[in-house]
């Protein structure tokens, strides 16, 4: 592949070949900005389109990678400014905790929910020594939930400085801001993330062997419809969410009641297949049909803390399930 320079700018084939080498890292950057894998793919396509349309503006004085990151960041910011969408989350406090004796609430099909991201799509590049959060830490649901508390511009600054490891001057150039403005935004963003995350970066500290055994018991409980075994694995204050349904339960007792009344109706109703999402324990949740076949129903991501399960997120959007399972 030839060098990316003025001689290859007008060749669609060479242009595509060069930008495609950065597809994965740009996609995950857009995902962190948007909180949605579907929106991230749209942002990436718009990034490549703008890059092609503005290819004459690339003078070769910087790297192609930096130029593409600048375009991708501004594509995301432009979209977020236009949408004026609410912050994405796994659980919205607009909706009260659900009654575990009542049916699940219908889905809320609005852009208010965080979506999962497959580990296989993460770039293979090593992290820069300057980063505050690694590629894996910055893809976990706890980090993404905290990130959504930031205004879009603060979010962009924090990602460029603390995840990509860019210098303040380079970040300021990307955003058309002053270095002092970038540093101020970064200070505020770090404060918010420290408050939201504390020492929790979303990764279980449970030893690998113990974690594997816990997850095996979890799978068995679902597949055998064993409510007691299931609740025994939960932390007292565990959280169960089901985006895009507004249904959520807080606490081991309420989650156990919901499992007994709504989920664990028959042994063999569910089958769990291991999956790699957001650098966390995850599964495809398959439901048995009347004919005995198992079909994908949801994607499930777990938070494990203090040798117990502290969070269960069940993503039931069929578009997400079909895309990522």
Write the layout of secondary structure elements.
Blueprint: H1 12-20, H2 23-34, H3 37-53, H4 64-83, H5 141-147, H6 152-163, H7 168-175, H8 179-197, H9 208-223, H10 227-232, E1 234-241, E2 248-250, H11 252-263, E3 270-277, E4 280-288, E5 294-305, E6 308-315, H12 318-324
Parallel strand pairs: 1-6
Antiparallel strand pairs: 1-2, 3-4, 4-5, 5-6
Helix pairs in contact: 2-3, 2-4, 3-4, 5-8, 6-7, 6-8, 7-8
Please characterize this protein's 3D structure.
Helix content is 45%, strand content 15%. It is of the alpha+beta class and 325 residues long. Strand 4 and strand 5 (294-305) form a beta hairpin. Helix 2 (23-34) packs parallel to helix 4, helix 6 (152-163) runs antiparallel to helix 7 and helix 7 packs across helix 8. 37% of the residues are buried.
Strands side by side in the biggest sheet: 2-1-6-5-4-3
Main β-sheet description: 6 strands, mixed
Question: Which overall shape is indicated by the principal axes computed on the Cα atoms?
Answer: elongated
**Mean pLDDT score, rounded?**
91
CATH top-level class of the domain at 208-324: Alpha Beta
In DSSP terms (H or I, runs of 4 or more residues), the helix count works out at 12
Q: In total, how many beta strands?
A: 6
- Distance between the first and last residues' Cα: 34 Å
CATH architecture of the domain at 208-324: Roll
Write the element-wise H/E pattern from the N-terminal end onward: HHHHHHHHHHEEHEEEEH
Regions with pLDDT < 50 over 5+ consecutive residues? Answer: none
Based on helices, strands and strand pairing, what is the structural class?
alpha+beta
The CATH topology assignment of the domain at 208-324 is Nuclear Transport Factor 2, Chain: A
